[in-house]
Each structure stands twice: as structure tokens, then as C-alpha cells.
């Protein structure tokens, strides 16, 4: 089972580019920031999934959103979910 499925918290982030011409740079800035977090992640066209401990995921999500906004994105959508059974993995 992939690590992001066992994580305490997951955050799905979608970059909302400010325009077609700038979209690539804005999304790449967010992907770079996501990659630098070291957390498990997936990437779609404008979407990243970060997973891990609560504090780490929340801090990483903030860095990814800041990177996208700093690159000129008009916004970001963030969905954060706590894993219901995450505590069980601490006992393994």
C-alpha cells in the first residue's frame, strides 16, 4: 500500500493559473515546492497530493500555495483530509 494511503493527513492542492501563458511556470513553481517537501505526492496537470504527518503536511501545503502565488497564480484550491485510522500505524 503506498505511503500516502496510510498517512495521518493528506492535502490535495490544485493551482489556479492566472492565464494560459503563465500557467506552466506557476504550476512548475508549485511542483518544485512540493518536491522539496520530501512528502509522498502525486501530480496531475495542475494538482499535487501531499501526505504525511499533520504538521508536516500543513506546513508543506502552505509552502506550495505560497510558491504558486509568488509565481503569479490567481489562487489555489486545497482539500485537507485526516486519515481515520492513522493512529493504528503508530503501533505497527
Secondary-structure map with pairings?
Blueprint: E1 9-16, H1 20-37, E2 40-43, E3 47-52, H2 54-70, E4 75-82, H3 86-90
Antiparallel strand pairs: 1-3, 1-4, 2-3
Helix pairs in contact: 1-2
InterPro entries: MTH1187/YkoF-like
Protein name: Thiamine-binding protein domain-containing protein
Strand content: 25-35%
Main sheet?
Answer: 4 strands, antiparallel
Helix content class? 40-55%
Counting DSSP H or I runs of 4 or more residues, the number of helices is 3
**What is the count of β-strands?**
4
What's the overall geometry?
elongated
Stretches where pLDDT is under 50 for at least 5 consecutive residues are 86-92
Mean pLDDT: 85
Total domains: 1
By helix and strand content, what is the structural category?
alpha+beta
User: What CATH architecture would you give?
Assistant: 2-Layer Sandwich
CATH class: Alpha Beta
Organism: Rubrobacter tropicus
Protein name: Thiamine-binding protein domain-containing protein
Could you walk me through the main structural features you see in this protein, from its secondary elements to its overall organization?
This protein has 92 residues and is an alpha+beta fold. It has a single domain, classed as Alpha-Beta Plaits. It is 43% helix and 28% strand. It has 3 helices and 4 strands; from the N terminus they run βαββαβα. It has helices at residues 20-37, 54-70, 86-90; strands at residues 9-16, 40-43, 47-52, 75-82. The chain has a 4-stranded antiparallel beta sheet with strand order 2-3-1-4. A hairpin with a 3-residue loop joins strand 2 and strand 3 (47-52). Helix 1 (20-37) packs antiparallel against helix 2. The model is unreliable at 86-92 (pLDDT under 50).
Amino acid at each position: 500500500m503506498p505511503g500516502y494511503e496510510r498517512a495521518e493527513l493528506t492535502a490535495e492542492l490544485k493551482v489556479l493559473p492566472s492565464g494560459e501563458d503563465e500557467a506552466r511556470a506557476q504550476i512548475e513553481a508549485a511542483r518544485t515546492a512540493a518536491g522539496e517537501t520530501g512528502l509522498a505526492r502525486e501530480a496531475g496537470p495542475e494538482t499535487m497530493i501531499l501526505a504525511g504527518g499533520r504538521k508536516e503536511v500543513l506546513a508543506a501545503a502552505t509552502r506550495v500555495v505560497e510558491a504558486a502565488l509568488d509565481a503569479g497564480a490567481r489562487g489555489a484550491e486545497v482539500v485537507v483530509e485526516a486519515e481515520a485510522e492513522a493512529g493504528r500505524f503508530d503501533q505497527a
